[in-house]
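Worked example 3 (structure in, sequence out).
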């Protein structure tokens, strides 16, 4: 696993939150990026726990299939769901399956998600973009809280994300990589460029794709 050498001081990155992200096969419409992909966007990848676990909205069959995927027995799945609901109710887990604090994400992963190919990752950005995102989240459907601590986790790569009401879009959702002829990806589908270059890419796709503010983000591996 390649760990990036930083172009920006770690103290400059402010944590937005933590995700338990599944390393998924890359969708067919994104072929040519990488064989597998790690993404906080629900359009591309999968994040755990799924929001239906703590907000409702799926049928019995889908619920059973999710339990089987996690390889949890009936009692374990009950505790899994109750834990997710409790974390959501106290504001430690948000609608986009984002954990506010690392210990909660780490413990949830270790208790319930070991059977799935996942990583606990941090998502962070520089203060300028952090403040832009903080303003956008106030008008969405989320709790509107972010972590704000310095991100010291080793860097897996970078991404360009945009907040849309209740979750992140990746610039890949609209195939905006086609607008960036110099772009390269690593084996997890993350940008294989330093943060300074990714910031330049984000400015190049401004106003394109989803109606969001495209923000360069650092993806760190925590577990």
């Amino acid at each position: 696993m390649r760990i990036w050498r930083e172009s920006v001081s770690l103290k400059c990155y402010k944590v937005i939150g933590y995700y338990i992200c599944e390393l998924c096969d890359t969708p067919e419409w994104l072929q040519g990026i990488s064989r597998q992909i790690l993404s906080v966007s629900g359009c591309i990848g999968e994040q755990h726990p799924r929001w239906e676990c703590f907000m409702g909205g799926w049928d019995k069959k889908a619920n059973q299939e999710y339990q089987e995927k996690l390889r949890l027995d009936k009692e374990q799945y009950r505790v899994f769901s109750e834990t997710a609901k409790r974390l959501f109710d106290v504001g430690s887990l948000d609608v986009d399956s984002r954990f506010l604090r690392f210990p909660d994400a780490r413990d949830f992963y270790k208790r319930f998600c070991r059977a799935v190919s996942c990583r606990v990752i941090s998502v962070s950005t520089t203060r300028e973009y952090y403040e832009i995102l903080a303003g956008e989240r106030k008008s969405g459907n989320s709790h509107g809280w972010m972590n704000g601590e310095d991100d010291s986790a080793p860097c897996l790569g970078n991404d360009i994300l945009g907040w849309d009401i209740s979750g992140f879009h990746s610039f890949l959702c609209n195939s905006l990589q086609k607008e960036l002829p110099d772009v390269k990806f690593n084996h997890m589908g993350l940008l294989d460029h330093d943060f300074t270059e990714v910031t330049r890419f984000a400015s190049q796709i401004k106003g394109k794709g989803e109606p969001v503010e495209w923000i360069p983000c650092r993806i760190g591996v925590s577990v």
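Notes: The mean pLDDT is 89. Residues 10-221 form one domain.
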